[in-house]
Amino acid sequence: MSTDLETIGMLRDSAARYADDNYGFHQRWSVLARPEGYSPQAWSDFAEFGFLALRLPEDDGGLDGDAVAVGAIMEIVGARLLMEPVLASAVVATGLLLKLGTSSQKAALLPRLADGSLILAFADEDEAGNACVFDGSRLIGGKLGVLHGDVAGELLVSARDTAGASVVLRVGADAAGVSRRGYRLVDGRGAASFSFDGALAELLQPESGLSAAAALAETRDEAAVALCAESLGIVRKLVEITTDYLKVRKQFGRTIGSNQALQHRMVDCLLLQEEIRALTAAAQQALAGPAAERTRIVSGARAYVVHAARKVCNEAVQMHGGLGVTDELDVSHYFRRLMVNAALFGNRDAHFTRFTDAALAR
Amino acid sequence: MSPAPLSELRARADSLRQAVRDFHATVMPADLRDKSHRHQVLSKDDYVRWMRLLDQQGWSVAHWPAEYGGKGWSPLERFAFEDELARLGCPWVIPFGVKYVGPVIYAFGSDAQKQRFLPGIKTTEEFWAQGYSEPGAGSDLAGLRTTALRDGDHYVVNGQKVWTTYAQWADWLFCLVRTDKDDKPQSGISFLLIDMNSPGVKVVPIRTMDGYAHVNEVWLEDVKVPAENLIGEEGKGWTYAKFLLKNERTAGAIVGWAWHVLDRLKRHARETVVNGLPLIEQPLLRNRLGEFELRFLALELAAYQAVEAMCDGSENGSEASLIKIRGTELYQEVMETLVEALGAAGVACDVEALHSAGLPPLGPDDAGGILKDHFYNRAATIFGGSSEIQRNIVAKVVLGL
After folding, report:
1. Domain of A64?
2. pTM for this one?
3. Which residues of A91-128 are buried (b: 16+ CB within 10 A; e: fewer)?
4. Any idea which of B268-282, B335-349, B356-370 has the lowest mean pLDDT?
5. Candidates B248, B300, B308, B319; catalytic one
């Protein structure tokens, strides 16, 4: 089922309006200074607007939003560099819980996710040589680079059972046997690494019969697609900011935008923006499609978008000159945000390899 | 009449694609199909036969309004049609009559001109060429200097056109001429139809690096052109030319051509084993293939997005330029890689000649044709508005720079 366009338009408008009023680039400085790495006030405002229940079924008070609805919010998250755990908790971890959680797990967690009182993080990347293993009740192993893991109340952890099959576990972030090392990412958001030393863990076992491996694959794809939408928001903003700058910045007695060399490079940025837009839309549609095509389109989109967004951002920095690398200008914050996003939920090379195998198998 | 919803246009485009595939499989004559699949150079007879076949299917002018014999195809159907033909490796739809001058005539021509010329364009009874570029006016078309001076009931035309594709076959030349020297460059230009059999018209072939002469110089010396062959008003030629250019740039074939050569490259990479390993499994080529596939995916999706924007009126003017810039650059690079992967056969000047001399084949029997296409399409980033001109247009129209 797809979310209707009117609902998506309302989501987009209300998120944009909120960001205009409360999350300007200068207002954001105070968020960056906070120990949590996000604004608790904004987070509870998002809960009130229903953004955190975006993916919940209507019966649970949610919007049952599809990938296009998620993308509408993620574009604003990117364009306005919102710091809150929308992607990590409300989109990715909530999505995984909806796929694999038992009814009682969902009953326990969904209301707290919707009202913002719980931040749920998805811990997926194994520590090298210390992959997570579940023995039926307890979890051993390590996870790295868990986005917003520093502030998460609970975790969904990917692991293997003793037979080697994929499983997903619910673990309290402060439970006995869990040690957490929180830190800041270069874009100001928080993350954490975790060690599990026999921590009590609860298996997510869906009544639907969906395998954990399939649910994990879907979740990783959903994360990739949400990141494409976030990148689209960022790239649109960068193209807008940089084009405006080319029209006002004067050197040698004329605007730098009157130089054909820069005009053509700016056009190339616009072309990349349009490609990112097309790929993101296709990836959103592909999430609901057959598996092989989903793999090709989603990983293709993610692989292309990571490079394309980085290219646009490098150009934005370059054309702003020395200002482009200052902390004072938003361009450098977009630069850092894209760096972090490129490292999240499967990097460019992983997706490119997956794309190539799928494309050449056709 | 409000436009049909996008979902309906998509469904129509899909069934058109199927019809094109059926036509290719069952209607297209085997000799034409074979020649075209091997990328051989086609003769005028081949092309006329091809264009008439398309007309028999009702496709040659389907993008025209119904009152002139068309079907009022949406941009999406036009795109699907050309894209599918190109993917199947069919000859191109020669645009000079059906795509370029035809719409100018029905939009701006007199009733007499419509009756005189449109039927012959639809059936390729008359073959057309485009007299735009001049030695001093390439990308800067408004700098053209060919003059047409009114003398009683006719014009006297003097000047030189260049890069005129198929002028050697053409019955008619639609031509931009300067009717007023004092005006600013754009406003002194008029749009004239010139009979190629007129005294004073001389066609000089230009040999290109593929060894053929697709393009020509056209010399015009005191050529008498009846005043009734002026389209619209004197001095409005630039407006008509811009209208034509809009039609020119909606060309969808480039996406299909890119797909076609990429498919050919993959086939070659699967069939060719080097040191016990198919080329497609060799890491360096596989990486390049993956990059090409990825760029093709972006091109294809962006092209659809662009064409759909043309359908619902949300276009910003950059769409056609985007397709042309990206499509031609990808096409050329894939072609380059294919020629490289063909090895010795890729640089043999005439594979056909080797065959007929009884020498062992150097490679697949389409190798020579691929090489010819590669040479010809090196100009794809130059003709029809160079990549640089496309970027100038987008910078001005969309970015306001």
Report:
1. 5-114
2. 0.95
3. bbbbbbbbbbbbeebbeebbeebbebebbbbbbbbbee
4. B356-370
5. B248
A108 plus A124 within the same structural domain: no
Which tokens sit at B183? Answer: 């005006």
CATH class of residue range B128-234: mainly beta
Contact A26, A80 (CB under 8 A): no
What's the rounded mean pLDDT across residues B165-181?
95
Which of A160, A184, A203 is a domain's end point? Answer: A203
Instruction: Using alpha carbons, select from A118, A234, A228, A208 the residue that is nearest to residue A170.
Output: A118
Residues of A in contact with B286 (CB under 8 A): 356, 360
Are A274 and A339 found together in one domain?
Answer: yes
Third-level CATH fold of B249-397:
Butyryl-CoA Dehydrogenase, subunit A; domain 3 (1.20.140)
Question: Using N-to-C axis directions, what is the helix angle for A212-248 and A67-79, rounded to 10°?
Answer: 40
Q: Which chain A residue lies closest to B266 (C-alpha atoms)?
A: A360
Residues B362/B368, Cβ–Cβ less than 8 Å: no
Query: Between the CA of residue B371 and those of B51, B86, B261, what are the distances in Å?
Result: 25, 17, 12
Chain B: residue whose CA lies nearest to A243: B399
Q: Are A284 and A67 in contact (CB under 8 A)?
A: yes
d(CA B217, CA B200): 13
pLDDT in tens, B174-223: 999 999 876 687 889 999 999 999 999 999 999 998 888 999 999 999 99
Spacing of C-alpha B205 from chain mean position: 19
The complex's ipTM?
A: 0.95
Same-domain check for residues A108 and A25: yes
